[in-house]
Amino acid sequence: MTAGLPPVIAATTHWLTRAYPSDGGPAQAARVLAQARQAATVAAWLRYPTELDAGLLAMLGPGGSGGLDRVMRADEHEEPSAADRIWRGWVDEVVASWAACLLSDPRLAADAVAATADCEHAQVVDRDFSRLTTPDADDARAAALLRHPDLVAPVANMHRANLIERLRLDPVEVG
């Protein structure tokens, strides 16, 4: 996988798990992390399907979490630490929005995973996205906030139409 995608996937995963945390202990937090990482990976592969796309991302950067933070109404009066500014700079708003769509809509998740089967990144990385597409009861319980359509709607709706277009789905059937 090109160097541009791992930092974006990691930062976007981190943003998702902070915005929609597990209410359980370390085991549940790990389940939420795994699901968010799978969703962010599929979303990043859809957004940046070629090595060239990912290389350009590495050069230009993804844009950061500012728009997502505003939608989530993060405390604007609190200045983020230097470490927070660094990882937040690698968050991709579209990838986060698409990941939220995938986590809250099983059909979109299945269609997205199928759509990435032939992308360049899929040829060199394990393609097990079962925690995203068919979470077991423990995964679903751990990620109740992250998978709740109403709770993730503000983030998911930011770029949902672009995801549906990318997947070439009928918006009437999906909505």
Short description:
This protein has 175 residues and is mainly alpha-helical. It has helices spanning 5-19, 26-47, 51-60, 66-71, 82-88, 93-104, 106-115, 130-133, 137-142, 149-166, 171-174.
- Give, in order, the helices and strands: HHHHHHHHHHH
Helix-strand makeup class = mainly alpha
As for the number of domains, it is 1
How many helices in DSSP terms?
11
Rg result? 15 Å
Task: Provide the low-confidence segments as ranges.
Answer: none
Helix content: 55-70%
Number of strands: 0
Largest sheet: none
Ends apart, CA distance between termini: 33 Å
Report the portion of residues in β strands: under 5%
Topology summary:
Layout (H helix, E strand, L loop, with lengths): L4 H15 L6 H22 L3 H10 L5 H6 L10 H7 L4 H12 L1 H10 L14 H4 L3 H6 L6 H18 L4 H4 L1
Q: Mind explaining what this structure looks like?
A:
The protein has helices at residues 5-19, 26-47, 51-60, 66-71, 82-88, 93-104, 106-115, 130-133, 137-142, 149-166, 171-174. It has 175 residues and is an all-alpha fold. Helix 1 packs across helix 2 (26-47), helix 2 packs across helix 6 and helix 2 packs across helix 7. The radius of gyration is 15 Å and the shape is globular. The relative contact order is 0.20.
